[in-house]
């Protein structure tokens, strides 16, 4: 530790990542923290209504950027870029849903450049060597996420089951038996990872269930994708279900509630000041340092260190500090959420339908009568506030829900909400100091797993700020090195691996 006088640390952004960053920074001695958030509440943007799945098993597999993904990536990105429809959406037309997916890449000059840059970095990470390297980093991050979240939950006072409505496990569903079979090798990877963690109580696991096992464990699956399945022969039910995969150690929670619990715990320490409706407009640079931030109302806030945790907006603020040949390649992937209230015949487990393709359907259990449906993942430069498109997204999510779970009913659906997953090309977050500046850090790019990685991301950032390499374990030092935002430099792009 290198502390003698009090350090004032400004954290910009009050989402999951900003709150967890403040949490771990405030643990240091001689530090006071100010969190600046431009909206009127914490976790009000992407951290508001995500699917809330603590899902380390998702990144144990390694990033989507891998040698076999080059053609798939081009198929995914190019149509959006050219404004064609995304490929192969699974839309149940029998339910009266328009057959054409309405979600297209939102064209803008700014987004075109960002997406091209991001796409190049994505392709650069598709070599076997980079894939293996990124997978190893993701697994280190998975282990850190389990431990760091466990710590935060325990320190919040009551363990997670008492503080939040936590639902253990998640069920993955498939198109058919072939789809299910093609998935089985992934469970092996999760198994190997868990073995490598030793006897950690919360080591993740995936249990593959044949169709019959799935129906036995989850009787509601008898009507999966078929309103009349009661009268159908079992062979037809088999065709609809294929099989299932249970993530028994993952769990779901309301991520916004979690953020609020972190904020109120921090407020009680007296070391952290939170300021809402505070919009940072620019950074004030002086001699290789940033001395303060300008707010949009003309106020200036000075501090010793600055941590930018602004999700998708981070690259814009930080770009003036980077050289002409460096960027923070983050693009937004928009998702939609609808909360259903007064539900009946609710599944007994949270779900993710891997057969839903572009709809990317997930169901999160909150209580016996309240569930959350999330879906879609399309590139967007800024949050799409077009009400008509939002309504269409909601209609499609509801129609798909009726299609797959015909027996579930609800009395009310709340207004749909949209969020942007801040995606990095290698699917790893960017955590650490900006090169050339001694006191500016970023913590962003957590993508579709920001809730899962939030505690780990906050603790890694605090290590990067306050600890020297020699005082850290090998794994912790490795994570700091590998997650550095400076990995997206020109020399790294043209490096040999
Ligand atoms: C549909 C959907 C489902 C998801 N499901 C899951 C899931 O099941 N599990 C999981 O682990 N993750 C999930 N995620 C991902 C997760 O929600 C995100 O990774 C996470 O919320 C990102 O948090 P953040 O704090 O970086 O960003 P944000 O929540 O966007 O927070 C950034 C904050 O910075 C503020 N800000 C921006 N610019 C400024 C400025 N200039 N001045 C001041 N403040 C500023 C914003 O107002 C915002 O509050 C999902 C995401 C989506 C969209």
UniProtKB/TrEMBL annotation:
<keyword id="KW-0812">Transmembrane</keyword>
<keyword id="KW-0472">Membrane</keyword>
<dbReference type="InterPro" id="IPR036188">
    <property type="entry name" value="FAD/NAD-bd_sf"/>
</dbReference>
<protein>
    <recommendedName>
        <fullName>FAD dependent oxidoreductase domain-containing protein</fullName>
    </recommendedName>
</protein>
<dbReference type="GO" id="GO:0005737">
    <property type="term" value="C:cytoplasm"/>
</dbReference>
<dbReference type="InterPro" id="IPR006076">
    <property type="entry name" value="FAD-dep_OxRdtase"/>
</dbReference>
<keyword id="KW-0560">Oxidoreductase</keyword>
<dbReference type="GO" id="GO:0016491">
    <property type="term" value="F:oxidoreductase activity"/>
</dbReference>
<dbReference type="Pfam" id="PF01266">
    <property type="entry name" value="DAO"/>
</dbReference>
<feature type="domain" description="FAD dependent oxidoreductase">
    <location>
        <begin position="8"/>
        <end position="463"/>
    </location>
</feature>
<feature type="transmembrane region" description="Helical">
    <location>
        <begin position="9"/>
        <end position="26"/>
    </location>
</feature>
<keyword id="KW-1133">Transmembrane helix</keyword>
